[in-house]
Amino acid sequence: MHPFRIPPELAARVEARCGTPHPFATLQAQRTAxxxxxxxxxxxxxxxxxxxxxxxxxxxxAVNRLAAAIRAAGGLVVWIQTxxxxxxxxxxxxxxxxxxESAGARRxxxxxxxxxxxALWHELDVRPEDEIVExxxxxxxxxxSSELESRLRAHGVDxxxxxxxxxxxxxxxxxxxxxxxxxxxxxxxxxxxxQSDADHAAALCGFHSFFGDVLxxxxxxxxxxxxxxQQVAIFTGV
Length: 238
Prior knowledge:
Order of helices and strands: HEHHEHHHEHEHEHEH
Mean pLDDT: 96
Shape: globular
């Protein structure tokens, strides 16, 4: 996994604005979803991929650990799959304008529904009670990309933990837009993968500056415990 520590000067700026360096350190699991972005063969398997991130397979144990923890605490796991649709060639033609012909063809092949590239990575612990949502843009929350927001609202979710790949592209885009759609947004630092340590750190620092919190898997687990204790205190009046 990428080594990452929130720089002290950034923590100080966040604390000055929020009153704490971690505004979402307490998590009510029943209102929280772990949104796992693009952990597909297209981004993880050189044989089937078009934009493979070498770090992505290495975060799978952390992703599975947090998925198990949030399920146990009563929360929701959502697996996001990017899918190519023929309408993208018109509705999102700019992405292909930024690729050469060969790269564009590889993307279409890797992300077409039913292809090996479109499938989720085989080592992920996907359970029947989890949700699987397709998206058609980098962000899962942007208008026209997916049904993610409506599905989360139906479950009463107001907090989103984001993991997956790539940290500074689809993960960060999804997390920023989650905040813009009025969700409490958290990027899980050791459950995200990027092309380099520097890319990973830059994305997390930029996000933490204004958009939400950055926590580790262990800190999320602690957050579920604090949330449960808070609910007991409210119920018992202690």
